[in-house]
Amino acid sequence: MRKAIALLITLMFVMIISIAVGYGLSQMKKATQIKEDEDILYKSSMILHDVLTILKSSQELNRYADDDASADFHTFLATTGYLPLHINDQKIVISLHSARSRLNINMLNKYNELLFRNYFNRYMVGGNYVDILKECMRKNQAKDEYNNYQSRIFDENPTLFRNYIASKKHLLEINKFYLKEYGDVNLKMVPFDELFSYGNDKNAEIDLNYATVAVWQLILDVTKERAETLFLGEGNYNSLKDLDLTPQEKINLKKFKTTFYAPTISVEIEFVYQKKISKIYFIYDIKLKRGYDFVFEV
Prior knowledge:
By secondary structure, this protein is of the alpha/beta class. Helix content is 47%, strand content 17%.
């Protein structure tokens, strides 16, 4: 009996040690992970600082602040849109694009709402989807009333930001709720990456010289074929006459803020270090020499 008790105590002692060691190793792994994340965040912030300094001091870039530099700006983006760099064991890829090629989703309002609905209807997406988008933008709520929601999105996601749709990740959370609530898989067919930009920039005009096919289709309420024809004229538009729009297309276009030259670029920095990847996104206004709408992903 004594031997059995002694054996049982020994087994329990071994189990306790095993659990303690396992817990210690797991904590060490977490600590290592945190340290690695801190390292890549620090290095990423340094890279961002350097990139911003280069953008602000670049005489080449500053030339495009001139309203007459549209053609040169188009050539610049076409030739320098992708810049891969290698520094020792670090890989950095910088991508530059027009920041006004897509429609800021927060442009949705009572004047152009029907055009949004018509676009999603082309993909057989239910009208409830646009209603949910509106609920996630307080500017679309009744004055001084912030609880007139028809869906359960904020019951399911009480901490979800609701002033405006701030990022692609934010929209993905909204889409996730819609798919779960309505089971409408048609939403997965919508080319969101080609359609929307995000953020609270109320002056975010669409540059018609860079508008994507999806954007043309939504803002004019036209077929994909018609949108593709307009897209082929990229970089060659100087006025409405160049677009050769129908009377109805002109009416639809007036419901959005547009321009034929917006020297504003979307910058994406992908940083790879010791098998860790970080991404930084931001908008850079060449005229104002200012970056904004920064997003970090690790």
